[in-house]
Design brief:
LysR_subst-bd, 9-stranded mixed β-sheet, DNA-binding transcription factor activity, 11 strands, DNA-binding, Arc Repressor Mutant, subunit A, D-Maltodextrin-Binding Protein, domain 2, 310 residues, 10 helices, alpha/beta, 39% helix
């Protein structure tokens, strides 16, 4: 007797030993159902049912014991298949995301930690680099997603770009700096100041250079660096001035550094980019939706496999 035959036996019992009703529910003929039962009893040399004039009246002691065991076997079988099917539906895979170090620290610390912790079957590979390097990796299909600044200069016919965060670039300087007394700064206030800026591999550098050119300014750039915390540190108790995204204010751990807003500021627009494809995997859709809704709608990150949900 296989698992289907066990189910036949249980159905007969659960339908009051009425072979006609049981056969209807099992979608087999009544003679075939009766044959299955008789064949099993003959092969095992056991009577499972009490009978009278060919009709089933009830279970014998052997039948009652077999019925209890059969239910346990069928339940275990169904549970095993359910677990197998659920396991086959679990999403696994690798996602490669390129994020500039500044944006990773300022905006993506929480979102990436949640994505990683809530999805143990997914491997997240984070590539930290400047915008130009990330753009190149994205074009070479070595990244699934890249977080860049707009304008990303990517071909809109080949790449998708979604705005995540918009803010302004602001000035950071020492509380002892002469400009610290001003409530708000003009770009011309920076014309003769010693500047510490991001280097050419970062889009912020090129945004600022574009602004300076538009204003016909010749900035006095003393330091170029790829480290935002170093740029902040060099302004402490010095004449150096740096220009960084306003959200970095909450990461200033050192007293004595002030933020000053600029009139007609340069916008800092963070975008999520990925190649335009005819098909996106379930994993790619999940990552994009999670990140976009986290920033645009303030929604918390949920696991892709629901059993990991807490």
């Amino acid at each position: 007797m296989n698992i289907d035959h066990l189910k036949y036996f249980i159905t007969v019992v659960n339908n009051g030993f009425n072979l006609s009703e049981a056969s209807k529910k099992l979608h087999i003929s009544q003679p075939a159902l009766s044959k299955y039962i008789l064949k099993f009893e003959e092969e095992e040399r056991v009577d499972l049912f009490y009978r009278k004039h060919g009709r089933l009246l009830g279970l014998t002691p052997s039948g009652e014991n077999f019925f209890a065991n059969a239910k346990g076997v069928v339940e275990a079988h169904d549970r095993m298949l359910k677990e197998l099917r659920e396991a086959s539906k679990k999403v696994r895979g690798v996602i490669r995301i390129g994020i500039p170090p500044l944006i990773l620290t300022v905006l993506f610390t929480e979102v990436m930690s949640k994505l990683i912790l809530l999805n143990p079957l997914i491997k997240f590979e984070i590539v930290e680099a400047g915008a130009f390097e990330l753009r190149k990796l994205l074009a070479m299909n070595e990244l699934d997603f890249a977080v860049l600044l707009s304008p990303s200069e990517l071909n809109p016919q080949a790449f998708v770009e979604v705005l995540l965060k918009k803010d302004d670039l602001t000035v950071f300087l020492s509380s002892t700096h002469p400009l610290a007394e001003k409530e708000m700064l003009r770009w011309t206030d920076l014309e003769k100041e010693k500047l510490a800026l991001f280097n050419e591999s970062f889009m912020i550098h090129h945004l600022l250079m574009g602004k300076f050119r538009a204003l016909r300014m010749e900035p006095d750039i003393q330091i170029l660096s790829g480290s935002w915390d170093f740029l902040l540190e060099v302004t402490k108790d010095s004449e150096m001035v740096t220009i960084l995204p306003s959200p970095i204010t909450k990461f200033i751990a050192t007293d004595g550094i002030l933020e000053k807003k600029l009139l007609s500021p340069v916008s800092w627009k963070v975008v999520l980019t990925h190649p335009l494809k005819s098909y996106n995997s379930t994993l790619e859709k999940y990552v994009k939706e999670s990140i976009v809704e986290y920033f645009q709608k303030g929604k918390d990150i949920r696991p892709i496999n629901r059993e990991n949900e807490v």
